Amino acid sequence: MLKDLLDNKKCFKLVCGAGNEDAQEVEKLVTIYSLAGCNFFDLCAKTEIVDAAKRGLERAGIKEDRYLCVSIGIDGDPHITKAVIDQGKCVKCGKCKLICPHDAIIELDKYKVKKERCIGCGQCASNCPKQAIEMISQLQDYKEVLPKIIEKGIDCIEFHAISTDEKDVMEKWLQINEYFDGMLCISLDRSELGDKKLKERVSKMLSIRKPYTTIIQADGIAMSGSNDEFGTTLQAVATAQLFQNAKMPAYIMMSGGTNTKSIELASSCDVHPHCLAVGSYARKIVKEYLQDDNLLDKPDKLSKAAEIAKSLVDTVMKEK
Q1: 80 with 140: CB under 8 angstroms?
Q2: Which helix (H) or strand (E) covers residue 305, if one does?
Q3: Residue 105 CA: distances (Å) to CA of 8, 56, 133, 222, 294
Q4: DSSP string, 93-127
Q5: Which H/E stretch holds residue 86?
Q6: Residues contacting 139, CB < 8 A, separation 6+
Q7: How confident is the model at residue 319 (pLDDT cuts 50, 70, 90)?
Q8: Which residues contact 8 (CB under 8 A, 6 or more apart)?
């Protein structure tokens, strides 16, 4: 069970991307990382993406100890934003296409965003010299989305509660609890709230839950883990330390800028998370293989991708 993995601190979560709506890529990622020993997968909250993940598990031939989580967001959360290019301002310099880590921008007669591949990192918008790119929230109707997703058979729902609107956060949290009685995850970082308010919010959210039926995802800097450096993962460790010291009745998972250095740095700070979630870096090291449309029909190449992924999973689990 997922709870057993968390209790024993044997949990590694692959973040496919809360905004990653590319079913083919998700199937490849889940296949590769399931073969590599990853046991927890974070997905976009769309039925076709859950189906793709399940196909990946089937391809890997591993039916036990593999768990699926879907992520849902709130207005203001970067994970549910998509880049939109204003063609009237765009001068076709191509910087957005060059910098996009997920190959979500294509060039035809003009630059265009492939919505299904955009994960909301905002790098294109930050580096556009003409401010021609805006990040737009893709809000979800929980009443419409959650029943369909739950019916598919999932093990966890992750709520990205990165917002200053306390009322909206609690209303949506109550909705999620009404629909789903399994493991829930609260994803938070320190970008919007100070430490005191952050702890107060989580305490309030946990007050309606039984002890250790909730994961606190301590985010550093969302979607920033492309580089395998200590500095990249520093904020994730600091956020995890905040919640660990608060001694809340919940599991702690580190995410946001995480990489092979995360557990080593955490241990040196006497921080011991129950799970590590890796997204940007995990996807980056197998990107060459993901770009092959026929990867899943090439056993030798798939095996090589799984070996690379396994080096990450094994490094993290050894450190833990």
Answers
A1: yes
A2: helix 299-319
A3: 41, 26, 12, 20, 22
A4: --HHHHH-TT--EEESSSEEE-TTT-----HHHHH
A5: none
A6: 73, 75, 80
A7: confident
A8: none
d(CA 275, CA 4): 12
Distance (Å, whole) CA 315 – CA 320: 9
Residues 318 and 126: their CA atoms lie apart, in Å, by 37
CA distances, 29 to each of 23, 24, 35 (Å): 10, 9, 10
* pLDDT over threshold 90, residue 70: yes
Q: What pTM does this model have?
A: 0.92
The secondary structure element, H or E, covering residue 253 is strand 251-255
Collapse the DSSP code of 164 into the 3-class scheme (helix H, G, I; strand E, B; otherwise coil) and give the result: coil
Please report, to the nearest 10 degrees, the dihedral formed by the alpha carbons of residues 194, 200, 205, 208 taken in order. Answer: 170
Pairwise CA distance, residues 243 & 189, whole Å: 11
Backbone φ and ψ for 111, nearest 5 degrees, come out as: -80, 135
Amino acid at 42: D
Could you tell me the domains of the chain?
2-75+140-319 (3.20.20.70), 81-137 (3.30.70.20)
Two tokens at 14?
Answer: 């692959």
Q: Read off the tokens for 182.
A: 């399994």
Which among 244, 236, 278, 237 is positioned nearest to 260, based on CA atoms? 278
Looking at residue 251, what is its pLDDT? Answer: 98
Residues 6+ apart with CB under 8 A from 47: 148, 149, 152
Give tens-digit pLDDT for 215-258: 999 998 877 767 899 999 999 999 999 999 999 999 999 999 99
- 139 has pLDDT over 90: no
